[in-house]
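Morning run. Coffee first, then this:
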Amino acid sequence: MNKEKELLDPLPDNPSRIPRSVNIQVHNSCNSKCVMCAYKDTYKKESYNKMSMQLFTKIVDEFSSQGINRFCPSLQCEPFHHPEIFEMIKYLKDKDAVCGITSNGILLNRKITDSIFESGLDILTISLNAVTEDTFKYVYGQSGLDSLIKNLTYLVENKPDHLRMAFSSMLIKQNYDELTSKNHEIFRVLEKNNIRSGMGPIGNHCGGLSNYSEIVVKPEGQSSTEKMYCHDIFEAIYILSSGEVIGCCSDFRKKYILGNIKDQSFAEIWNSDINQQRRHDMMHGNLYDFEPCKDCSQAWNVMKNRGVNRPNSLAIG
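And here it is:
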């Protein structure tokens, strides 16, 4: 057995031998400071960093060589704010990879949208978290709802057949009624064009939201973390623009750094002693000193489903 194969061997009870998807932060910038995102609390603490094409292609080549072909170049950022995003998508498609992107949609004017259509992008998820101007200003910290709706309508009505699309919404106190009622015209456009629209209550993932108690919504009979599954540590890998690898897409504060892809192989990082131990701990409920999961509503919901209760001293919200 060679060293690489040994590194890729899983724990006996680990359901995932290698990650199913690779999530890449192509730069550490977003054009919005959404109230339900920890980016608003951390962006001032870091200088701008853009991933080079050289590092991006290195990452894609290394993971592709291991048979991993699902990539999402939109980790903790707005991808269409990156000047080389379409070159990155092209490189992924030249590798026969499946490329999925999540965007807030604010930058999607007709020129960018047409470039998306031509790029071969496989999956596009739009985060839509307001459909009235007042709520839009509250959630996104800027105006522009009418322009967004116009651009999204063009996107939906003209998308090519190869592009799979979905809309997702994070429900908070301030947007719950207007989104769940689905009275806005955009929802009729989605239904007419068979575009799926999913909604779910906000959770305090990684314990990173400073304003969680102000925005969390718990409708009658529904927990804010009901029926959620935390797959991050088992099924995905998250690479920042610096090359650092974190254990969760919501770890904006970098509490859980596994290594750096610039000077370590993916196999060394993925199956390091500490990462294997933490996957083992996750499966057996030993999260009390586990950053950042000890403060995460979703991780503790998984443990609750397995009969492990959160200590009162670690309660969230």
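The mean pLDDT is 83. Good start to the day.
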